[in-house]
Amino acid sequence: MELHEKIKAFRKSKGISQTFVAKALNLSVSGYNMKESGKRPITTSELQKISSVLGVSASIFFEEKFHVKLNTTA
User: Name one GO molecular function term (predicted).
Assistant: First the structure.
């Protein structure tokens, strides 16, 4: 699983919208979507901000065994 896929999965599992993360990064929603879909790179600074918004350490996205529990209470 690529970095952008891990970020997307974790964001969804937390029930956080792309709009919320985009605002935290001072990006448009479409700009953030391009990063989360792998069409644009995610900078180290952006990864730190995304991690902060999601309430996790950035290192979690580099673990070999990456598991996300899906939020099914929507």
Answer: DNA binding
What pLDDT digit, counting tens, does each position of 6-20 carry? 999 999 999 999 999
This prediction has a pTM of 0.82
Residue type, 18: Q
> Would you tell me how many other CB atoms lie within 10 Å of the CB of residue 7?
22
Task: In whole angstroms, give the CA distance from residue 63 to residue 28.
Answer: 29
Around 47, how many Cα atoms within 13 Å sit in the side-chain half-sphere?
Answer: 15
Please give the Cα distance from 8 to 17 (Å, whole number).
10
Give the 3-state secondary structure of 17-59. Answer: CHHHHHHHCCCCHHHHHHHHCCCCCCCHHHHHHHHHHHCCCHH
Q: Does the 3-56 domain belong in CATH 3.40.50.300?
A: no
